[in-house]
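ok here's the first one, seq then struct tokens
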Amino acid sequence: MASAADQLAANLNLSSFSKATELKKRIWFTLGALIIYRLGSYIPVPGVDATILGQILAGHSRGILGMFDMFSGGALGRMTVFALNIMPYISASIIVQLLSTALPSLEALKKEGDQGRKKLNQHTRYLTVLIALFQAYGIAMTLQHMTGNGGVSAVVNPGYPFIFTAVLTLVGGTMFLMWLGEQITARGVGNGISLIIFAGIVANLPHALASLFQLGYTGALSPFFVLLFLVLAAVTIAFIVFMEQAQRRVVIQYPKRQVGSRMYGGDSTHMPLKVNTAGVIPPIFASSVLLIPVTLVGFSGGKSGGWLASIGQALSQGQPLYMVTYAAMILFFSYFYAAVSFNPEETAENLRKQGGFVPGIRPGSNTARYFDRILTRLTTIGGIYLVAVCLLPQVLISRYNVPFYFGGTSLIIIVSVTIDTMTQVQSHLVAHRYQGLMRKQRGRSGNRVGVRR
């Protein structure tokens, strides 16, 4: 039998959306914030020659700079105030989350509820500033030594004034985006940080589709192959949606207890465990680590030595060693991050304290081993799914030279953010519909009381 929430969700329609005034305000606020973000991605950093910089970065499109430029929606390639995008905040969040499982002080903050969460967020902001300062200084120093065709420098007036201005501008842009993302989360719809990354990735989608159709029009790709590619892309997206929503539901039973003459408890619920527990973190980590040698070789112009050049060539995208290493690192980070984000012993202990148990499994260590066994199997399936999705675009790019703008990481981010945002929109609609029903019910109760009087 469907629950009340499911029945309300099934009755939602366009009229329900038109009456949800609060939801419409949140959507307009979110759209306005994303427009501000896209406008800021075209404001250049003072003192940088955009033409020379574009020529230089064109040769690093397959390095780590190319991946970051994709996440920033081209802001890094244009060297704008949002060139660092929100990536320092993402790195800081991952570091704080990993440290919270290793340091007892941070682990204690996680258990303090809202107050502990606020302190962890504050630590994340401080770490974001440090990471942004380090990255901005590195970018400013690198820009001063970059030269385009004819030895023309990418910086108009190199020196300490440019370094100070560039660092201040880039760090300020990152901190503004962090604040903007928090405002979207609080006053808009969806997770603000995720939506900013989402907007950066999809910004160049029209250009990517136009390039694909142009290749088909000129005969570089056959029309059949273009059609097959579009069908394959749709099937891949559908597969990602299925896997991101797939979960294993572990049945949890609570015993009955008698208080006075009444009987409480005896309910049965479930604990959802996602198949892809680690999310998009493993591909991001694996891509960042593997693209570092390629980027170093690119900046050195191949003059750094034979061994480094050989490693960079072997680990370039499309090479067999890159494929094998990329798959192995995705699997490794999947197990590692799943172990960090889900603690079977802690979950089993909390369940025992609440009086719950898994039917057929003894509480305590047996339940912990049961959760660990399920998590290992789910992580194996999730890791294989990530490997398949992330390697498929690499094969298309390396073998068929398809201008596939979206890699596996970006596709997973797009699908995950879309699902999360639509879920929140539906939650707001259900809450609005429920409040309307409650007001009608109170009005009918008041009318019945007035009739009796």
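and now the second one, same deal
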Amino acid sequence: MSPADRLLDDAVATARGTDVRAAERALDGLVVADGAAVDAALLARLTRDVGRLWPRGWQPADLDRLATRRLTPRGARLLRDAMAAQRRTLPAPVPEWFDAQLTDLGATWDGDAGWLDRRADGDRITTLRDAVDALVLVAGLPPIAALRPPPGSAGTALAAATPSGSRMLDRVRALLAKAESTAYPAEAEAFTAKAQELMARHSIDAALLDAAAERSGGPGGVRIGVDAPYAAAKALLVQEVAAANRCESVWSDDLGFATVLGFPADLAAVELLHTSLLVQATAAMLRGRRERGKAGGRRTKGYDESFLNAFALRIGDRLREASAAAAGQSDDDRLLPVLAARSDAVRERVDQLFPGTTRHRLQVRDEQGWVSGTSAADRASLDPGRPARRPVRGSR
């Protein structure tokens, strides 16, 4: 082991501990050591540890999402550098989706020489600290459900949702844009319900087409970020949108994302609708705060959380109504058996990938927030009361 590797081992070990002075002494050792040797050791360690994540279910987008949450902006940038550098070492075949994610993240590699100084902006000490923190993060990540075959693998795994640029999806995006821009809850609900109905029809057509062609592809999966504050309420929104589109959602609270399993057309609907509904829910919550302030009330965490929980549950009901309406318009006798078979396949895959899930019961801490959130999701409901609480499925 080289002197730089030993210094790096010491820095990583102390960074994981609670002795701040020891961690600073170890960092000082990296600062005064041979810079080129330290940079090479850091790059080798980061690329090695990053490469170990791909066979354990992680994807570049997953790692970047978590790095953005837990590291400094520079630390997250260093991990993107490491992913781009590690890409050079990957054996064929490297799937297109992997390179597409790196491109979306802006992960590029400009060469080994001076790579750390390119990110330092003259502050090498802080940059070394960020690099060590990135190493600690990557080395401590657990395996997660594999949704796609890793690079170098010829195996099969869950197909991912790949929304296309079809006219139908363009119409859905246009409807959701209108729902996000209007200040009138009734209009927003009408636009969103119409978008859900279009997506449901598209899903039904895809299911019947696959059945007629005897295609046996299984359910796929996507991960959706669930960020604080009010992560549990946002996870509930993902779950409600997923359920309305015949998908299943499992929330990994510690890692900050929900894994949604379903068939491709349904997953595309979940991604599109969830993104829009989160915008709508946040805007409605802010309006509710202002109204509460005018009435002499004050903004509380309990109000915001109860508002978002109620919004998620009621909008889930509205989405399911739109899906049922779309299914009711089909006169194909094969539809119900086909949809039932797909639902069974999704539940079976959830049980395979997440055998240790638990249920989290949500608490309603502010009645006014609950009523306001329900009204925001369904303006016609003048006296919503308190609907039964629904648990959010999460992984241990």
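notes on #2: Residues 379-389 have pLDDT under 50 and may be disordered. The chain has 15 helices and five strands.
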